[in-house]
Structures are given as C-alpha cells and as structure tokens.
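Dear colleagues,

As part of the handover before I leave the project, I'm documenting each prediction I ran so the next person doesn't have to rerun anything. This entry is a single chain, and its sequence is reproduced below.
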Amino acid sequence: MSDLTRQSAATLASAIARREVSSEEVTRAHFDRIAQVDERVHAFLHVDPESSIARAREVDQQLAKGELLSPLAGVPIAFKDLLATKGVPTTCGSRILEGWRPPYNATIVDKLNAAGVVSLGKTNMDEFAMGSSTEHSGYGPTHNPWDLERIPGGSGGGSAAAVASFESPMAIGTDTGGSIRQPAALTGTVGVKPTYGGVSRYGIVALASSLDQAGPCARDVMDTALLHAVIGGHDPRDSTSINEPVPDVVAAALKADVRGMKIGVIKELKGEGFQAGVLERFNQSIEILTDLGAEVIEVSCPHFEYALGAYYLILPSEASSNLARFDGMRFGIREDDGKDRSVEEVMSATREKGFGAEVKRRIMLGTYALSSGYYDAYYGQAQRIRTLITRDFAYAFSRVDVLVSPTAPTTAFKIGEKLDNPLAMYLNDIATIPVNLAGNCAMSLPIGRAPEDGLPVGLQIIAPPMADHLLYQVGSALESALADRWGGLLISEAPTL
C-alpha cells in the first residue's frame, strides 16, 4: 500500500499545497489502492479514473497559479451514491435507477468541486438508504475491511468501508437513522451527522425528508472537521436549511479540551442488548473523559425506548411518498414488454422489478400507516412520541453539555446473519435513531476493539442543535487520549485485506 493512501486528508492537503506532491499523484495512488482491494471490499459502485485524474491535474494547475486556497484542495473523496452528480451514474443502490445520470449536482458536490476536492467515485449503499448493513444494495453487499465475512454497517457501508480500507481519505454519507454513525462504529472510522438543516440536502435523493442529513466520514476527527466546514452552511435551494453561520468545528477540534464540561451518559442506551465488549470499551472511555477533567453524570431519557417504533412509522410513511416518483415514466428503468399496457400496469411492473424486498416492505408499511382510518393511530402517534423524545433531549441538555452512548449495540455481524430477520436488523440503530427524530447533531468516534472478536467499537457523542463544535471538541480530546494511553487498542493500523 502506498504511503500516500495512509496519510490523513489534512496531511495530504498540506503536502499538495507545499507542492511536495501533486493532487494527480495522490489521486493515482488511491485508484491503485481501489484496484488492489475493492474487488474484495466492494465499496464503490462507480469509478472513472480518467476523469478524476484529469480533474486532479486541473487542481494542480489552479494551485500553481494561487487560485485555490481551500484547506482540502487536491484531496480525493468518495460520495455515497445518492448525491446527484452531473453526468455520473447515480443509482441509490437500486436497480430502478440503473443508468440514470443526473443533469445537475447536489449542493455538496458543487461546494467540494469549488474547494478543489477530487471525486474518486460513488460508493455502495443499502437501496435508497433503507438498511443497516449494506446488504440491501441492488448491486451486492459491501464487506467490512476488518473481516470480509462481516457487514460494514449501513446504509452508508460503502463510504465507511472506502475510508477504512484506505481507498479514500474521506467520504460523504447520509444519516437518516444512523447511516453515517453506525457504519463508522463498525469500521473504526469517524462519522458525523450534523444538525438537521446544517448541511444542504439539495440534490440528495430523499428517503425521509424530515430525518435525512448528509455528513462527513474520515479516519480522524480533524479530517472530519475540515470536511464538515466545507460542506456546511445555508443553501436557499433547501427549504430546511438553517440560515445561521456554521459552528467553527475546526477550531473546536484544535481545542480538544473537556475540562469543566458536563457529559451525560444515557441510562437507556447502555444495558440489555449491548455486547459486553462494546460496554467495556465504552466504560473505559468514560473513565478517560473523567480523567481529562470532565464531570460525568448519568442522564435518563425515558421515551427513548419508543424511538425505534416511532421511527419505523415515520420513515416508511415519508419514504412511501418520496419514492412514488420512481414509476418508470420519467427516469430510470421501464419494464415494458411492448404490448398494449396501461400506464398503471407499466408502473406496477417497473416497481416490482426495480425495487428490492426491503424497499417494498417499507413502502407498504408507510402507505398503510398513512391510509384513511389509520393515520392518527400510527403516523400521528409516532409524531407525538417524536415530540416527547425531543423534550427528553431538551431536559438532558439543560443539565449537561453533551450526551454519550455506545454508537451500536454490537460489533459487526456476519453477512447474511440478520438478513431474514428485519426486526433484528432494525435494532442495530437503537442508539442512533433518537438523534434523527430530534434533529440533533452526533458523532461516532472509534474507541478501540472489542476483546471478544477484535472488531471496532464506536462511542457516540450527541450535542444540541447547532452545537456541532462540541462534538469535535470532545471527540478530539478523547481521540488524543486514546492514542496516548491505549496504543494498539486504537484503530490505527490498516485492516488486513
């Protein structure tokens, strides 16, 4: 493996800016890495080395002329395959969008292009972001770089696996119920779900519009902060975008100090159902935060036990509406045998062929929950639970600065182990879902490996809306302390591929 693929995004950007290495060289090194390992990992759905290397040359020319001052100029990145990218296949991991090339870019893509970041390609994902393991992709599962027989989490397992396997120094994911944070925990990477509305959703194919949020993935806290700073900010094309300055996440990552901070351990997210090794690493991390000068207390959020049920009514309901546009009439595949078929028959045949089992399951569930006579009993009641969860957070944040929990209840399970048990699959997001229901921001930080299986464990840090900087302040402090005290227990070496 090239030394260039082992470097952080910040280190690469600095070397490129000083002309010690070119963006083209860095980009080529990462494509060499992709060629070496991705047949086994399957992190990417689409790459175009020729176009990417040409773009890297352009960036090198701009830097030579002093035209680019971005802190990430010339650094490669991978995009989850539901960000619209002009002229580039965008499938959302679904056969129904096979061959679709958007005529426009998502705002995030435009921002990163303007910053001189070089796209490596599009990463695999659960179909339309519906899943917790990336096994529901219409193009086959992604494998966890730490153990190729295991899942990398989902729905953004491709982005997390690309970063963990050193195929890309950073990536963009989306998080509707944990789809950035849970893969980060299972692959030993850092993933952040920003405040809802803190990063533009324009050009991101919607799953559940009141829950979806794009965010950064990387191998350390500073790289994640640098990426967050580029993609964050108000976008008038997104009606949910917050018109406020982006918190200074980079300065917070540099501060890396928790002295005097109050940190709350969520009582409901550290007990039954959580793997012993996950809790062991979590408790050790809490001890370190205390040693660093934080005051740690236990906080109860009593309505969190209803979060999973509420989420799996709200998300399918919004998904059934958002996915109605995929009908074989306007874009994507069309199942038409050439016979005299009605529009309704063509739509039905297209959706039957193009959608996978999990997508169909959630569309049917959501349509039922919104139907006449059931709306108040199901969707309306779920929204009431959402309000109670938001109040739980508000009360907790009146007592503490941030909250913490394990990110995922277990380490990565084997591919196929839970595929036939939807409820067992859904329980993987039990710790991450409340954040999306309330619109808070959260980070998953690698805190070592579970003693039982040697697989990565993640700690979740949660902050109030528009307090994203606190994630980076706490995360960076804990990251530094883990590196100093635990050495080999930290996820620092390359997975065996």
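The chain has one domain: 3-300+392-489. The domain at 3-300+392-489 is CATH 3.90.1300.10 (Amidase signature (AS) enzymes).

All the best with the project,
I.
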